[in-house]
C-alpha cells in the first residue's frame, strides 16, 4: 500500500522512515533545507527520564524565524512510540528553558515510525493529532489538520495570534487515539464506582450522562471555533464550559454545577421529545447523581480531550470503547462488532442514493449503533460528492438520511443499549429518532400492560413501520446474538415462537436460538430484492441440526456471498465461536435462479480490535492489515460480480446442503500431486504408522501419569489419582510413539513420547501412533505439525467449530514420506535439540541447587512455610 510519500513495504528501519517518509513529508509541509536541522546538526541536551538524567537529541529540529519551533523523532516501524514520548517532551523543555521571556518557544514534537505519526503539544502526553499510514493522502482531513498545525506557513503565524492583550488563559483540547480512549474511560468509570460507593451498573449510567454532556460541549466548541478545533490550536479557557475551572466558578451558586448543566441540556432535549422529533435519551426527572467532588474530578480527567473528533472511525469506536472500558465478559458479544467487520459488511451492502429514492437501512440488533453510523457516513459521502445537487437539495437529502433512512432496534435493558445507540446517533447528527427499545423478533410488538405510555407509543410507531406486507427496508445490516434461546414453556416466548414458520417446523417443545428466528425476521423486514448482511455462527451454515434453516434460506433468498471470519474475530467479547458474514437478497419470485456464490476466507478482518487496553507496537500494523484485507475482499467481490475473475465463485449446483466457506474452498489432499512430482512417496498416514490401543489396566486407586500435549509439540504430564480422571478408558503411550490431540491437532498439538515418559496414559481424546520401520518418529512428527498437513486436517473435518479430528481421519490423511537424507537430518536435528534442552535444564537445576546450598537459601523449615502458607494457584 502507498501513500503520498512512500510504499509501506519499503519502510523497514529507522533510516528508511527518515529518508522515504519524514524528508518527503517536510517538503510537502513547505520546509526548505535551511529550516530543517538533521540529527548531525542538532545539539545534544541533558534531559530527565524518570529518575535518571541522560543526554539526548531527536532526529529533526524545525527552525522558523531563526527559532526552534518543533521537533521530530523517527523510529523503526517495529518501535513502540510510547517509549519515546517522555524524551521528546523533555528535549522541548530543555530548549525552552534556555530562552529569554518573549522569545519564540518550541511548541510541538512529532513521533513517527512511518506507520503512525503522533503530534503532541510539548507539555502534553496526550497526542494532539494521530495519523496512520493511510491518512497521508490527498484530501485527507487528517493531513489537512497536520498542514494547518505544522505547515511552514501556519508556524509563521503562531506568534501573531493574540487574545485580549494576551491576558486570557488559553486551553488545548486534543483528540484521543482509539487505544487511549479505552484507558481514559475505564479510569473515569472506576473513579465514579470507587469514590461514590455505587454499583458498576449505577456508575455506568452516571458516566453515560457525563460523557453525553462532554461531547455536546465539545460539539459546541467546534461550532464556535471551527478552525482552532480542527487544527488543535488553543482556545479561550472561558469558552470551555466542561472544565474544572467552569465548575469552580459556579460552586458559589449551586451545590452541583455539573448537574445544573445537565438539567439545562435535558430540558432542551425534552422539548424535542415532546414535539416527536427525537426519542427519549434521558428520563424526564433524570439528574447527575454524583458527589460534586467526584463530578469535578471526572471532568478534570476529560476536559483536555476533544471527544467530538472529526475522525469518523474514532467517533464510530467511541461508545464501543466506552462499553469495553466499563463491562467485561461474554455479554459484550451483543454489543461489539469489530470495526473492520462493520466496514466490510457496509461496503458489501453498498447503501445508495438512487434517482428516485434513498436506501433505508435497519439493524434489528443495533447495539451501540455501529452499523447505522457507518451506513450514514456512506450515504452522506454520496450526497457531499454529488456536484449535480444544489445546496438545498443536499440539505434535504442529509435530513432524510438522518431522520428517515436509518432504523435500529435493540432489546437490551441492562445496560440500556438503545439509549447508548441514541446518544451515539444523536452526536453524529441523527438524534436517535429511529432507535427503538424493543424485541425485533416480536412480530406483533404487543406492549405489556405495565409498560409506560411513552414506550407503548414507541412500540405502536415501530409496529406501523413494520406493517408493510413485504417489509419496508432495502438493507438489513446486523450482528444478532447467537446464544439467546426462546423457550415455548415461557408464555411470552411461546407467543413469539408461534408467529414463526421455522418454529412450526421445529420439534415440538424444543427451544430455538435467536439466530435461527432472525433469518426469518430478515425475510419479513426487507423488500423483494432487498439485501441482508448478517453475521452468523458457522453451525447455522454447516451443522446437521440446521438443515431445515438452510432450506428456508434457499427458499426465500438468493445467497450472494459467504465471507468466513477468523476464529478470533470476536476476541474482545470473549466469544470463541467461529463466524461468517452471510450476504442474501430476498427472492422476487420463487423461480429466481441461484447464481454462483462468492466465497472468501479472511485472516485479519475482525482481529484489529484488541481485547487489551494497553496499546502495543503491533496495533497499527494489525489495523492496517485488516483495512487492506477489507479492500481485497471488496475488490474480489466486484471482480466476481462482473465476471472478470471467477476464482472466488462456487457453482450453485454444488450448494446441495452446507453453506460454510471451508466446505467448498478448502480441499483436502490438494498438494499430493505436487509431493509426488518431487519424487516423494505419498500415502495415507496408516501407511507409515499404526494406531496403538494398549489399554491401561491399573487399579482405580493407582496414581497415573496423565499426559498432555502442548501446541508447541511438547509432552507434559501430571500425576493424578485415577478416580479423579473423567475418562473411563485410558491408553498407554510408549517411548517413541507419537501422540496427537483430537481437538488441538490443527494447532500443532502432537508430540514424540520421550523414553522417560514411557507408560504415561492418555484419554480417548488422543490418538497414539507407532511409526513403522520405514520412517523416523521425529520426521513423521514434523510432517504432522507442518502447515500443509494441518490445513488438510481442517479440510478433512466436517466440523464447523473446534474441528475435532478422530483416529480414522488421522490415519486417512495423505502425507508424504520425506526423502531419506532430509528425514535423517531432520531427525538428528530434533534429537540434538532435545539433548541440548535436557542439558540446559540440568545446568539450571544444578546452578540453582548450588547457590541455595552455598548461600543457605534452602531448608526444611523454608519448604514447610511455603507449603503451609503459599497462596492458591
Brief digest:
By secondary structure, this protein is an alpha+beta fold. It is 40% helix and 17% strand.
Report Rg. Answer: 32 Å
Shape descriptor: globular
**Percent helix among the residues?**
40-55%
Strand content: 15-25%
DSSP summary, beta strand count: 31
Question: Please, could you describe this protein's structure?
Answer:
The chain is of the alpha+beta class and 873 residues long. A nine-stranded mixed beta sheet has the order 13-12-11-14-17-19-18-20-21, with helices on both faces. Strands 1-4-5-6-7-8 form a six-stranded mixed beta sheet, sandwiched between helices. Strands 23-30-27-28 form a four-stranded antiparallel beta sheet. Helix 5 (178-195) packs across helix 6 (200-224), helix 5 runs parallel beside helix 11 (312-326) and helix 25 crosses helix 28. The longest helix has 35 residues, at 820-854. It is globular, with a radius of gyration of 32 Å.
List keywords for this structure.
single chain; about 850 residues; alpha+beta; six-stranded mixed beta sheet
Architecture blueprint of SSEs:
Layout: H1 14-28, E1 36-38, E2 45-49, E3 52-56, E4 60-64, E5 67-74, H2 85-97, E6 108-112, E7 116-121, E8 129-132, H3 141-150, H4 152-156, E9 170-171, H5 178-195, H6 200-224, H7 226-231, E10 235-236, H8 244-250, H9 257-274, H10 292-302, H11 312-326, H12 339-349, E11 361-363, H13 370-385, H14 391-404, E12 406-410, H15 417-427, E13 435-437, H16 453-465, E14 473-478, E15 485-486, H17 491-498, H18 501-504, E16 512-513, H19 514-525, E17 526-537, H20 538-542, H21 547-556, E18 557-564, E19 579-586, E20 597-601, H22 618-642, E21 649-650, H23 661-665, H24 672-677, E22 681-684, E23 689-692, E24 703-709, E25 715-721, E26 731-733, E27 738-741, E28 750-752, E29 760-762, E30 766-771, H25 777-784, H26 787-796, H27 807-812, E31 814-817, H28 820-854, H29 860-869
Parallel strand pairs: 5-6, 11-12, 11-14, 12-13, 14-17, 18-20
Antiparallel strand pairs: 1-4, 2-3, 4-5, 6-7, 7-8, 9-10, 15-16, 17-19, 18-19, 20-21, 22-31, 23-30, 24-25, 26-29, 27-28, 27-30
Helix pairs in contact: 5-6, 5-10, 5-11, 11-13, 12-13, 12-22, 13-14, 19-21, 25-28
Amino acid at each position: 500500500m502507498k501513500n503520498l510519500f512512500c510504499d509501506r513495504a519499503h519502510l523497514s528501519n529507522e533510516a528508511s522512515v527518515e529518508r522515504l517518509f519524514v524528508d518527503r513529508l517536510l517538503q510537502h509541509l513547505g520546509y526548505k533545507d535551511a529550516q530543517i536541522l538533521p540529527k548531525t546538526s542538532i545539539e545534544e541536551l541533558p534531559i530527565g527520564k524518570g529518575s535518571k538524567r541522560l543526554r539526548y537529541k531527536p532526529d529533526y529540529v524545525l527552525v522558523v524565524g531563526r527559532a526552534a519551533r518543533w521537533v521530530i523523532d523517527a523510529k523503526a516501524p517495529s518501535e513502540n512510540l510510547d517509549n519515546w514520548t517522555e524524551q521528546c517532551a523533555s528535549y522541548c523543555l530543555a530548549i525552552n528553558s534556555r530562552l529569554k521571556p518573549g522569545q519564540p518557544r518550541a511548541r510541538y514534537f512529532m513521533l513517527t515510525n512511518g506507520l503512525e505519526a503522533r503530534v503532541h503539544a510539548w507539555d502534553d502526553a496526550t497526542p494532539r493529532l494521530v495519523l496512520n499510514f493511510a491518512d497521508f493522502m490527498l484530501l485527507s482531513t487528517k493531513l489537512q489538520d497536520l498542514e494547518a498545525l505544522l505547515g511552514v506557513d501556519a508556524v509563521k503565524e503562531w506568534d501573531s495570534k493574540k487574545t485580549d492583550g494576551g491576558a486570557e488563559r488559553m486551553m488545548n483540547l486534543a483528540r484521543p487515539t482509539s487505544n487511549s480512549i479505552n484507558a481514559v474511560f475505564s479510569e473515569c468509570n472506576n473513579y465514579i464506582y470507587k469514590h461514590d460507593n455505587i454499583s458498576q451498573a449505577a456508575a455506568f449510567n452516571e458516566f453515560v450522562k457525563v460523557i453525553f454532556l462532554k461531547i455536546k460541549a465539545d460539539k459546541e466548541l467546534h461550532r464556535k471555533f471551527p478552525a482552532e478545533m480542527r487544527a488543535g490550536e488553543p482556545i479561550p479557557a472561558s469558552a470551555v464550559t466542561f472544565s474544572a475551572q467552569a465548575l469552580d466558578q459556579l460552586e458559589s451558586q449551586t451545590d452541583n454545577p455539573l448537574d445544573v448543566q445537565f438539567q439545562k441540556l435535558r430540558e432542551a432535549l425534552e422539548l424535542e421529545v415532546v414535539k416527536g422529533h427525537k426519542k427519549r435519551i434521558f428520563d424526564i426527572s433524570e439528574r447527575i447523581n454524583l458527589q460534586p467532588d467526584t463530578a469535578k474530578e471526572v471532568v478534570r480527567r476529560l476536559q483536555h480531550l476533544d471527544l467530538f473528533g472529526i475522525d469518523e472511525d474514532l467517533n464510530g469506536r467511541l461508545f464501543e470503547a466506552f462499553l469495553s472500558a466499563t463491562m467485561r465478559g461474554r455479554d459484550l458479544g451483543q454489543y461489539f462488532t469489530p470495526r473492520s467487520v462493520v466496514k466490510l459488511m457496509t461496503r458489501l451492502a453498498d447503501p445508495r442514493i438512487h434517482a428516485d429514492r434513498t436506501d433505508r437501512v435497519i439493524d434489528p440488533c443495533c447495539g451501540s449503533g455501529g452499523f447505522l453510523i457507518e451506513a450514514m457516513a456512506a450515504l452522506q459521502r454520496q450526497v457531499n460528492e454529488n456536484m449535480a445537487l444544489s445546496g438545498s437539495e443536499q440539505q434535504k437529502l442529509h435530513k432524510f438520511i438522518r431522520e428517515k433512512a436509518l432504523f435500529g432496534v435493540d432489546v437490551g435493558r441492562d445496560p440500556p443499549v438503545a439509549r447508548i445507540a441514541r446518544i451515539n446517533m444523536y452526536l453524529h447528527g441523527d438524534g436517535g429518532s429511529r432507535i427503538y427499545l424493543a424485541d425485533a423478533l416480536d412480530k406483533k410488538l404487543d406492549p405489556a400492560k405495565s409498560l409506560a405510555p411513552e414506550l407503548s407509543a414507541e412500540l405502536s410507531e415501530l409496529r406501523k413501520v413494520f406493517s408493510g406486507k413485504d417489509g419496508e427496508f432495502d438493507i438489513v445490516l446486523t450482528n444478532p446474538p447467537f446464544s439467546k434461546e426462546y423457550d415455548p414453556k415461557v408464555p411470552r416466548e411461546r407467543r413469539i415462537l408461534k408467529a414463526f414458520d421455522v418454529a412450526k417446523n421445529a420439534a415440538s417443545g424444543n427451544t430455538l436460538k435467536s439466530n435461527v428466528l432472525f433469518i426469518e425476521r430478515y425475510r419479513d423486514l426487507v423488500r423483494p430484492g432487498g439485501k441482508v448482511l448478517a453475521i452468523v455462527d458457522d453451525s447455522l451454515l454447516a451443522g446437521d441440526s440446521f438443515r431445515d434453516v438452510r432450506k428456508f434460506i434457499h427458499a426465500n433468498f438468493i445467497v450472494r456471498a459467504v465471507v468466513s471470519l477468523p476464529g478470533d474475530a470476536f476476541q474482545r467479547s470473549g466469544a470463541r465461536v467461529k463466524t461468517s458474514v452471510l450476504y442474501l437478497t430476498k427472492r422476487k419470485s420463487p423461480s429466481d435462479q441461484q447464481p454462483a456464490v462468492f466465497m472468501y476466507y479472511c485472516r485479519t478482518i475482525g482481529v484489529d480490535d484488541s481485547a487489551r487496553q494497553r496499546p502495543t507496537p503491533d496495533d497499527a500494523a494489525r489495523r492496517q492489515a485488516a483495512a487492506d484485507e477489507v479492500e481485497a475482499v471488496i475488490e474480489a467481490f466486484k471482480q466476481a460480480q462482473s465476471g472478470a475473475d471467477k476464482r472466488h465463485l462456487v457453482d450453485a449446483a454444488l450448494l446441495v446442503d452446507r453453506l460454510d466457506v471451508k466446505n467448498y474452498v478448502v480441499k483436502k489432499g490438494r498438494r499430493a500431486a505436487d509431493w509426488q512430482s518431487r519424487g516423494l512417496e505419498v500415502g495415507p498416514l496408516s501407511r507409515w504408522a499404526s494406531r496403538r490401543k494398549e489399554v491401561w489396566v491399573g487399579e482405580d486407586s493407582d496414581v497415573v501419569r496423565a499426559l498432555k500435549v502442548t501446541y508447541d509439540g511438547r509432552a507434559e504430564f501430571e500425576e493424578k489419582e485415577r478416580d479423579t480422571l473423567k475418562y473411563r478408558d485410558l491408553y498407554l503411550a510408549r517411548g517413541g510413539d507419537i501422540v496427537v490431540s483430537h481437538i488441538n491437532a490443527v494447532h500443532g498439538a502432537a508430540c514424540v513420547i520421550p523414553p522417560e515418559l514411557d507408560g504415561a496414559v492418555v484419554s480417548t481424546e488422543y490418538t497414539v501412533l507407532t511409526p513403522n520401520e520405514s520412517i523416523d518418529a521425529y520426521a513423521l512428527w514434523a510432517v504432522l505439525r507442518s502447515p500443509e498437513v494441518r490445513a488438510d486436517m481442517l479440510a478433512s473435518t466436517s466440523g464447523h467449530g473446534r474441528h475435532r479430528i478422530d483416529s480414522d481421519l488421522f490415519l486417512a490423511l495423505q502425507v508424504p514420506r520425506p526423502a531419506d537424507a532430509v528425514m535423517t537430518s531432520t531427525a538428528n536435528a530434533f534429537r540434538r535439540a532435545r539433548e541440548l534442552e535436557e542439558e540446559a535444564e540440568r545446568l539450571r537445576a544444578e546452578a540453582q541447587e548450588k547457590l541455595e546450598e552455598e548461600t543457605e537459601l534452602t531448608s526444611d523449615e523454608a519448604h514447610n512455610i511455603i507449603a503451609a502458607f503459599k497462596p492458591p494457584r
